[in-house]
Amino acid sequence: MMGCLYKRKQKMTDGTYRELPTIWIKYYQGGRAVRESTGTTKETVARRVLRTREGDVEHGIPIVPKMGLITFEDASADLLNDYKVNGKGTHADAKRRIELHLKPAFKGKRLISVTTTEIRAYVAARKDAGAANATVNRELSALKRMFTLAVQAGKIHAKPYIPMLQENNTRRGFFEREQFEAVRARLPEAVRPVVTFAYLTGWRLRSEILPFEWRQVDWTGRVVRLDPGMTKNREGRSFPFTIALETLLKEQHAAHEHLKKAGRLVPFVFHRNGEPIRTFRGAWKTACTAAGVPGRILHDFRRTAVRNLERAGVPRSAAMAMVGHKTEAIYRRYAIVDAGALREAAAKIDGAANSVTGTTTGTVTPNQQQPVTAHSA
Known about the structure:
The protein is mainly alpha-helical. It has three domains: 4-58, no CATH class; 72-152; 177-339, hpI Integrase, Chain A, CATH 1.10.443. It is 47% helix and 11% strand. A three-stranded antiparallel β-sheet has the order 1-2-3. A hairpin with a 4-residue loop joins strand 4 (217-218) and strand 5 (223-226). Helix 3 (91-106) crosses helix 5 (133-152) and helix 6 packs across helix 10. 26% of the residues are buried. Mean pLDDT is 82; it is low at 359-370.
């Protein structure tokens, strides 16, 4: 017996019947007719559902006709479990985006009922609220992943088209040394070493610096290391000691030894009185405003480190390995040519020209950037 598609009718108050838009399917299992909603109005999708069900029957696969019943709350729970199982560092960020923005918009809805039109309306509302394109795209990415997981689990058969916004991926923000010193001086004492380490290495704050432990400091080899799995690309990484970095680590180790003598063994290099540092967003925002550089973000240290390595003449392959950029395309987005670098280039051109003509008038010697001190400013 062949299955078929059909639409149900709803009886109206005046006694007439109205055809409902959702397509249903009828197929046979063990000689018994089974009727199930596909949750879609598209005939092509409904036929795909019917073929899947008939294939399951033919191969003896048990069928639980609950397709399309998954709600937004169920899908978001699946997403967060997926992030947790795979050890993704963005778990907390995804949870925050869901609770603050996605859940208020889609709460209680069946996932299959969320349409492209509704998603566009969500995007428009977020833009009206002042959200940046990149921020909205991160939220849409989470929503996309929810649909993908639901399809993989057989809870829905198709996902809607989710349009992404155009982003400007050019990385602009970086710190001059004076700006960095000004911001650091206005931060709480416990987090000053954290931002100093970020300024020197360009490592990621939340996933690489804050969880950093003493076992990852190799005093003999004079390097600091990240274990495989701790980094975004899941690969290990090392950064050699510089004078400033070694000074910083020695100061932190002295504090570590002081706590150890008091009976507290703290594994973290950076901490607040022995307790892990989770975040300091509020203090950071206040310090940046007070230092005259409002709106700066902690990720600017990553760009700054790349620029400083370029200025120091570090080979690109070594710089990529130290900071943790796997491809040159990504690295080039961070290797910013700023006004200071351009002035230095002009000075070198002038110097070369003067050496050819034998004159010295007008020669400019570029200011050499002094190494940042590790102690608190």
